[in-house]
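Training component of the fellowship. As part of building independent skills, the fellow (R.M.) carried out the full modelling exercise for a liganded target. The chosen ligand was calcium ion. The inputs are recorded below so that the supervisory panel can assess the work.
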Amino acid sequence: MRGRMRRAIVLAPLLAAIFAGCGAAEQSATAPEQPPARESGRAAHFKVEQVASGFNRPAWVGAAPGDDAVWVGEQTGRLLRVAGSDRRAVIDVRRQIRVGAEQGLLGVAFHPDFATNHRLYLHMTDRSGNTRVDEYVLERGTPRVTRTLLRLDQPEENHNGGQLAFGPDGRLYLGLGDGGGAFDPDHRAQDPDDLLGKIIAFDVDGQARPKPEIVLLGLRNPWRFSFDFALGEIWIGDVGQDTTEEVNRVLLEPDEPPKNLGWSAFEGTERVDGDELGDGEVVWPAATYSHRDGCSVTGGVVYRGTRLRRLAGRYLYGDFCSGALWSLQVTPGQGAADVRRERATVPQLAHIGTDANGELLFASVSGAIFRAVRP
Ligand SMILES: [Ca+2]
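Fellow's submitted model of the complex:
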């Protein structure tokens, strides 16, 4: 009797705690504690000027470790090194790929030790319309494929993801869309056993045939993402369906289970007629904008350069359709504030990258590369 009493006394607070926990979990799955940040005014932290033109659908721009040149990835299949007026195609995969609105050469990543090991990685759509990630080594400037890291069937032409980038943990990250169609018809983004609708990572240094690991799930089409090495975070532009474009900010915790960015149970913070939310801690967007201001977000970077002092530590992103650019303040915790629509615009904005000094570069699919300078 006394034993049973004691058990009841012990159990009561325990059960209360469990039910309180359930309630909190349900609540966090249906609405964010804090709504995503929205545009709160205008600013002119910088202006843009053209640095080079005449490219064929440039969709990626950046720098290679140990090299001052600007590298440009053309969606149509060439990777070019641009140093002043010298422009050279280093890799040409034009005969290996299919090019479409969301197909082609979609992502480029240089190994962190590129200066010594000369390794780099390309994400492309093969001639059958499927995803392929190849590792290259440049031997005296001549490219050679050393491994294929990923081949993945793509059910539709759209939502192939794009970005390929090395994270603070040294792994190679890839963004993959939900496979295409509207509202994720094959229920892939919430399926923990499907690589589509995910951000995945490869340990390219540890294993000969690295297995992709799912880092984040619940994405629709993470065309562009970047890492803020200073805070160990990933910033993702997840392209929306009919109403809402998302900027997601996620703390990288490699030992934790994959976090869930909501699609296709949620578009932004709105429940849509999609799937039920699967496993994983829900991460709501840090900022959103509606289709009045654009139609396809191009995720950008947290500015860590030195030329634009007023932009220091702010996250910059834009929209492919409207060419609008916004910057926002990175708040302590996981949020964002002070979203400003910048005066500068870049038409058909496909990528925001950085040069060897961390200064901003913009790729416009219309054919030109721009950079940010003081207003
Ligand atoms: Ca989402």
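The panel noted the following from the submitted structure. The longest strand covers residues 142-152. The pocket of calcium ion is lined by residues 238, 246, 261-263, 266, 285 (CB under 6 Å).
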